[in-house]
Write a structure and sequence with these properties.
By secondary structure, the chain is of the alpha+beta class. It has a domain of 118 residues: 3-Layer(aba) Sandwich (Aminopeptidase). The protein is built from four helices and seven strands, in the order E-H-H-E-E-E-H-E-H-E-E. The mean pLDDT is 95. The structure holds coenzyme A. The site of coenzyme A (COA) has 23 residues, from strand 4, helix 3, strand 5 and helix 4.
Length: 171
């Protein structure tokens, strides 16, 4: 458990946090391009979404501020094929009302440490090309572009490119 900003605590999500995690995610489903889901997840899909986080190597973390969940971060297996076990996908989401004051940076820095502890070597982020805030967040943390998947998504009537970025924790 690591706190970076005064008054903010980064910790593992508990089951009581899951509805708040989902609320933040579903806001982005409906209003943003941070995820390519198009509709809120059913209860069954939420259970499947949470399933990888039962392993400590793949944490789901939250930023708690004044008793409220300001954002969450996660590490997930990049693939269920075991040769990919050294790699994980990283995601960070912050409540719309809590953006622009370092919540994402704190969640991200904590996840980098958690990944190292879990023996993960390569972190991968998938970011819609128009998602400038996310691109800047990961860029400033040292993630580098490894390619653009062109025109792979469509949301809000717009065809979207997706950039892949990676960070090698052993270099
Ligand atoms: C991207 C997101 C997580 C940033 O959260 P945040 O708490 O506002 O970010 P922070 O305040 O910690 O800012 C960290 C860095 O991100 C970048 N950043 C954040 N918001 C930005 C914006 N609106 N425009 C440009 N850069 C931005 C900056 O580089 C910033 O560092 P700096 O202030 O030192 O320059 C948030 O906008 C979000 O939840 N978006 C929807 C979900 C999403 O797209 N997640 C990423 C995909 S996994």
């Amino acid at each position: 458990m690591i706190g970076f900003n005064e008054g903010m605590k980064i910790r593992d999500a508990s089951p009581a946090d899951h509805p708040f995690v989902m609320e933040i995610y579903h806001d982005e489903v409906l209003n943003g391009v941070g995820t390519f889901d198009l509709e809120p997840l059913s209860d069954e899909k939420q259970r499947a979404w949470l399933a990888p986080h039962t392993a400590s190597r793949y944490p789901l973390t939250v930023a708690e501020e004044g008793g409220r969940i300001a954002g969450w971060g996660s590490l997930k297996p990049w693939s269920d094929r075991r040769a990919y076990a050294r790699s994980a996908e990283i995601s960070v989401y912050v409540h719309r009302d809590c953006r622009g004051r370092g919540v994402a940076r704190s969640l991200l820095m904590d996840l980098l440490e958690r990944a190292r502890e879990g023996g993960i070597v390569v972190l991968i982020a998938r970011i819609a090309a128009e998602n400038k805030a996310s691109r800047a967040l990961f860029g400033r943390a040292g993630f580098q572009s490894i390619g653009m998947m062109r025109r792979v998504g469509e949301k809000f009537g717009r065809v979207l490119d997706v950039e892949l970025l990676d960070l090698h924790l052993d270099s």
